[in-house]
Structures are given as structure tokens and as C-alpha cells.
Fold:
Amino acid sequence: MRRRRSRTLARQFLAWQLLVVVILLGAVAVLAAVQSDAVFRETQGRRMLSVAEDVAATPGVRAGLVQRNVDLLATFARSAENLSGADRLLIVDADAVVRSTPDPAELGSPFDVGESTAFQGRGWVGDPDGDSVVAEVPVIGDDGAVVGIVSAGITAPSLLQALAPARGEVAAVLGIALVLGVVGSLLLARRVRRQTLGLEPEEIVELVQRREAMLLGVKEGVVGLDPAQRITLLNPAARELLGLPGARVGEQVDELGLDGRLRDVLTGRAAGEDQLVLHGSRVLVLNRMPVQVDGASVGAVVTLRDRTELATLQDRLDASRTVTDTLRAQAHEFTNRLHTIAGLTELGEHDEVRRFVAGVVAEADAWRRDVVSRIGDPAAAALLVAKASLATERGVELRLAPDALLDGADPALAPERDPALSADLVTVLGNLVDNALDAVGASPPPRWIEIGVALDRDSTVELQVRDSGPGVASELAEEVFRHGFTTKAAQADEPGGIARIGGRGLGLALAREACLRRGGSIAVREPDEGGTGALFTARLPLARGVRGRGPLKEGVQ
Structure:
């Protein structure tokens, strides 16, 4: 099938080449005929004019016109006609009557003067019928008057007659052109087949249509970029995932208004597989594959996968894991206390048992009462109570700042004001505490986390989480909130797909997303007065604001 189609391609090229050759040869032939006709008319016009002048200057012709001697005129006319090669020589008297002509039927007939100026005493050369060249010269009598005219004419050759002398040359040129056309078409067909990988034009069109249908029809987003980072392909899935319904092919990535992290991944400045990007409310995983042809870069293809649902499931799994860890820590702590109580009972230290139990109850109740009395949001309070057991198992002290207070009786915190406020508080507070637990886990004792919360006059909840960890370098104060940024080492036992999507560099990005969604802000800095660790400050307005867009600096203050 491929060979048959290849011959078809060669035949197509051959047919077009021959058509072009024939057209060119026809054009050349016409041009040659036109030039030959022009040369013929110019040359023969001068020649016929010379013949007519010679006849008109003959005294016998003047005498014959004056005496109207037709036989004398015919003698001079036929003689000049035979000597000059003119096809037709007429002698006309002063009354425009033909007195000498090769055609006996025209003898004595009126002569059509037309545009001739011979009767006005001036020679004239023209083409009265379009097929011949005629020269007319006046015959001047002894008194200087025009006594007649002499008309000499010759028939112009046709196109075939003009080309007849060059039949051999024309055939040779035509043969050479045909050979060159055949050889050129075969070489061209071979070169085109090699450049198109042996595909026929129909196959190329079909392949392009299928590839385009595949790229535009896949569920995953596909973005094609050229070496200058201009869009060459943007399928509907990518438009939806990126929120770019009006983007056009040819636009620069930097002109699309995307955030910095997304731009870095699309342009290749952030390299690596399965790059995590939080874009609006979507969690996207991007893979960028450079495209090279013959060793030269021709652009890149970026695929986008929506992993929002998987990230949501990962968050739920993390919540379940946190609850499990908390219950395990409480069970471990409860078992140790039971063993202590059992040992004291066996030793008969009943008073010590009572004091030990009272101390345990008082310690647990003290934290619970402190949190509930000072944190008016039930969900946030329950989160802190649960995190306390996990922090205790890790050897970390979880405490409230002395001035921490979120009065639940404040009307501004009423649930009907904004039902999503509690969820945003839990998202920000939970991620900040988890980040602090990871930060202080490898720090030397004492290890502690201090939580501050307040409602300021601007009806904004301000959360502060301070820890005794190593802190955050000043050059990373903005980078820590970018999607996918992490300083944690990957755990060997983490499932690859879930860890990359939900467990690396997403917690602080989600906290920032929640703050920006409400029109707030989040920042990190070193504590005042030379304190250790890091101090994260998040501000969440009670009333939802307009989400900021643009680079990270616009949201991190």
C-alpha cells in the first residue's frame, strides 16, 4: 500500500511538472511568435515602403497614370512585384480607381483609402486587414500634384508558419524540458517522501486531524509551547484547569496572568516530575516534557492533571491519621498511668494513688478548661485539645500565649455571620501547628509551641504560632508559602503518589490560600527580642474579602 501510494505521489508531481513545462513552453512560443511578428512587420514594412517608392519614382508609371495606360502600368507593376517578392502591388490613379492589380476582378474598382495618407503626399505603412503589411506611396506628377499612389503589400505568416523554421529547435527544447521535468519530479517526490517519513499527503492530513482530535479530546490538560514560551496548543481541558477560556495561540505564558509558581513550571524554571501547583481551588500536578527534533529544541509539552479530589481524600486521610495518632498517644499515656496506678496499689500506697489520679485529672482538665474558656470557636478548641496529646507524645509542650483570647460570645463570631469562618480557622491553625510540630521535632529540648489568637478592632482574627525550632531563613520567608515548596525530607515509607500530592509543600500553601480567599494575609518572621524559632502570623477577616491575584508578594505581607 505504501509503495503504491508513493508512486501516486510521484505521478502527481510528474503531472504538475509536465503541466508547468507545457505552460512555460506555450508562453515562450507565444512570446516568440509575437516578437517574430513584430520584427516581420517592422522589417517588411520598410521593405514594402522601399518597393513602393521605387515604383512610384519610375517615369513610366507617372506617364501611364497621366495617360491612363493600363497595359504600361501592369508591366511595371508585375515586374516590380516579381523582383521584390511582394504578394500584391497595386497602382491607383488620382480618382482612387485601381488601374493595375494582380486580380483582374479588382481592375477599375474603387480603392479603399482608409487611414492612408498617400493621397495627401506622404508615405504610409500599415495593416489594414490585420493579416498583412502594406506600404502606400504617392506618385508625384511634373507639376508637383499627386497623380496616383502605389500600394505594395505582403501577407504576415501565421503562428505555425512563424515557428515552422524552428521546428527542430522547438522539439529539442520540448524534449529536454520533458526529461528535466520527469527527473525533477521523481527527485522531488523522493525528497518529499523522505522528509514526510514516507507518508502521503492524505496520510499526513489524516494523521494531523487524528492527533489534534486526540489532544483536544483527552481529559488531561495539554499545553504546547515553542522555544520562546509562546502557546502553540491549548486543549479545552487545559483552558478549564487553568481558568483561561480566552487564551489564544501565540500568547506568551508571562502574559496570561498566572501566578509565579505556575509560570515557573510551565516555562521549565521549576524542573522535576509531578510538580504540585495549587491554582485557585484546584490541586494540579504538572509534567513538562521538552521536545527535540534532530537534536534541536522545538519547544515543550506540559500535561496537567486535576488531583483536587485526591488531595481532598489525602486531607481526610491526614485528619484520620491525626485522630489515630492522637488516640494512640492517649492510649499509650493511659496505659502507662494504669501501670503506675496498679503498681502503687500493689505496694499499698493508696494515698499516693489518690494523689496521682487527682494530678492526672487536674492536668488534663486544666488544658481542656483553659482552651475551652479562651478559644470561643468550638472546632478550633477541639483541634487544640486533640493536638495537645500528639504534641505530648512527641515531647513538645503545646501552650497558649498569655493574652490568647477568642471570645465566643462576641457577636462578630456568630456562625450565621460566615459559616466558613470556622473551617478556615481550623485549616490555617491546623496546618501551622503541624508545620511547627515538624519543625521542633528534631530540635534540642526544651521543645514548645505557643499559640496566640485574638480578635482585633478591624473584625479580623489574628493567629500567631511560635515555636522553638530552627526558624526560617529570611530569604525563604516568602518561598515557604509557595505551592510545592518544602524543607522536609521525604519519608521512605510514604506512598509516592499521595505523598507528592498531599504531603509535600501543600500545608502552608493551603493556609495561605485560606487567608487570601478571605482577603487576609500570612507571613513568617523571626520572633522579637532575639527569640528562637519562627513566628507565623495569619490574619483572617470575619467578612470575606476579594481574593487577591498576582505574585506571592501581594498576598504575603
Notes: Residues 1-6, 489-504, 546-557 have pLDDT under 50 and may be disordered. The domain at 2-163 is CATH 3.30.450.20 (Beta-Lactamase). The longest strand covers residues 282-293. The chain has three domains: 2-163, 218-306, 360-554.
